[in-house]
């Protein structure tokens, strides 16, 4: 059976202070906070989601904010090394000035014919803005960011693998990615989707990663629905990789497996989406709890540090 991934559904990372997280991704980058909820496995920790106005797959980055005193991780093999966002052509000059305005150091880069700005968030997560024609312009225009400059969603990601050769093989033979280039020690793949669809794999090891603040926990790929997700589960298991049972994540269903290079992959369904428990116009405004934690709302509200989306000067 031939299967082809449509690209990234979401990326999940570990960060520190939750208000610093909101200030950067909503205040500086201009993403929409589309969901406040809690970690299913640790309800005393937020799970925050940022994306475009409609909270569409391929735009969503999610965070577990472990707090100010949490230990730092180390970016390395077995992790997403860089998360890349797409911005409209001609918008990079605006973002250079915006990063300078907020005293965020950046470097300019070019790979596979694409110009980009590389920088880190306040907790050390590596990010990149890449100018790209593909993808729908964002209609979320916070502050002085217009749709001519706003982040569209993911362009892709760079993977650091403990076994790059096997990861490359998996992306091609199991996930159905198409190899489209090789340059400066990176192999580029394109998925079957038209957004969030470019994946670079760094050839050669960079040293073992360690999960903690400033690192990506996992990358999730799209499944159109539950039926396709089960087909992916069967397909992946045929290659000798262990896949978890389906996990209900409220806004999507998930399966997980660790690929040959130690990266944690998830396959997440597009539905039901983020409007199942609050209307689109109010996304991210209130703390939404899974049903099993609703009875603990009062105590959780006391435990979680309050957060707010605010305009930064």
TrEMBL record:
Keywords: Dioxygenase, Oxidoreductase. Residues 75-122 form the Cyclic nucleotide-binding domain. Residues 7-132, 153-270 form the VOC domain. Pfam families: Glyoxalase. The keyword Cell division does not apply. This is Ring-cleaving dioxygenase. CDD domains: PcpA_C_like, PcpA_N_like. It comes from the Bacteria. InterPro entries: cNMP-bd_dom (IPR000595), Extradiol_RC_dioxygenase (IPR052537), Glyas_Bleomycin-R_OHBP_Dase (IPR029068), Glyas_Fos-R_dOase_dom (IPR004360), VOC_core (IPR037523). GO terms for molecular function: dioxygenase activity. PANTHER family: RING-CLEAVING DIOXYGENASE MHQE-RELATED (PTHR36110:SF2).
